[in-house]
Amino acid sequence: MSEKLSTFQQVRDLSKKPAVGFSAAMLQRMLPNYQLFCELAEFGDAEFAEKVVNLVWEWLTAPKAKINIAVQLEKLEEITPDVENFDNFGVYPALDFCMAAAATLQLISDEEPNGAVMVAKLSQGGVEAYLLALSETDLSNQEVKADPLMQFEIETQLEVLAMCNNRALDFKQLRAEMKAQGMSNIGIAI
């Protein structure tokens, strides 16, 4: 657990732009979960979800980029699934994506200074929920932490943190690396 706590503390210590960069990287990895949910549940708007992620990257790479946060949050709320209305597991990672996207937009607008921590927790929590849902037995915290998918999630968060702590951070390179992983945070192939 200490590794998990130190990860979140390191995210909490990031200044605003690197925190948004960290969040964008996690969103990039969570996006396929939402897109697959849209396809299977015939709900939501996968194109708009991708647009939100693109807007966040644009805000990071184009200093003059402006985002109407209120409008984006309103549209995001419209495409956020209600877990009561769906009986498949995919609704949870889709909801995690929407909550993470909202937290990132609120971080950009200074409404939620801990937005990046929320995104980190949603991403790790999504992996944990996925592992627990797949398992036919109750997994201990140690078993969850030892699972290769959770190990990969923690390693990825730590790598992204290291990149975000680098003054010469290249957000385009960060995005390319997240896309190059070829899978979402819960292992859905892209």
Overall average pLDDT: 94
Q: Estimate the global geometry from the Cα principal axes.
A: globular
Whole-number total of structural domains:
1
Parts with pLDDT < 50 across at least 5 consecutive residues: none
Number of helices: 9
Tell me the strand percentage band: under 5%
CATH T-level topology: YP_001051499.1 fold like
The end-to-end distance, rounded to whole angstroms, is 30 Å
Write the layout of secondary structure elements.
Elements: H1 2-12, H2 16-41, H3 46-61, H4 69-78, H5 91-108, H6 115-134, H7 141-146, H8 148-164, H9 171-180
Helix pairs in contact: 1-6, 1-8, 2-3, 2-5, 2-6, 2-8, 2-9, 3-5, 4-5, 5-6, 6-8
Structure description:
With 190 residues, the chain is mainly alpha-helical. It has a single domain (15-180), classed as YP_001051499.1 fold like (Up-down Bundle), CATH 1.20.1590.10. It is built from 9 helices and no strands. Helix 4 (69-78) runs antiparallel to helix 5. The chain is globular and about 50 Å long. The mean pLDDT is 94. This is YjaG family protein. It holds the Pfam family DUF416. InterPro entries: DUF416 (IPR007338), YP001051499.1-like_dom_sf (IPR023381). It comes from Brumicola blandensis.
